[in-house]
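Feature request, filed as a ticket because there's no other form

It would be nice if the structure record came with a short human-readable summary line next to the tokens. Right now we just get the raw output. Example of a typical job, pasted below so the devs can see what we mean:
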Amino acid sequence: VKVKIPFGNKYLDAIFSVPEKKSTYGVILTHGAGGDMNFPHLVSLAVYLASHGVLCLRFTCKGLNVAYRTKAFKTVVEYLKLSDDYKLLGVFLAGRSMGSRAAASVIRQLSQDDDDFIQGLVCLSYPLHRPKLQSKLRDEDLLLIRCPVLFVSGSADEMCEKQLLESVASKMKAPKKIHWIDKGNHGMVVKGRTTDDVMEEINVQVFSWLRENIELEHK
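Raw output as currently delivered:
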């Protein structure tokens, strides 16, 4: 279902992937610095989640400024929270690369509100540092988040060195899990494996983590 979400004097293009049965939890998903919501990994994940009963709303926000992307993400969260069509108990925020930085920033900003609508964060290829600039880590939001976090990263990601992410994760207050895509780079490309094969691994990991966290919430 295509929608246009008001954002200032513009609109954000977005698409709902809707499960057959009514969903009580949803995922909001956005892209990295390049591309848009039709990036193949995002489409694949959205379709997979909807076919397994989880509503997924993915949106496009062009702009290379993290503060701007964060503002847009926040607008989409509000939109879904107030939606009469999909009355959800909670959502998980998810993004690829720069989109995951924006998602983390939204969660940190909204964590001051006593609001449990946001249930967790999914970071696909979180860009922990610029290539070859490991001294400057983008970890400030991650260290302040309290809700569960899943990282899915390539073990050969030039923007997220394995030991550095593990070190940051060990300092996080939030419950967290890291799933490494063996030999994957920042674009999740793995020599000798098809894109579909890698995406299947990512989709299964994300869904099983979501399911665990939704079940915990219901206990």
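Something like this underneath would help us a lot:
Residues 195-218 form the longest helix (24 residues).
The CA atoms of residues 18 and 138 lie 33 Å apart.
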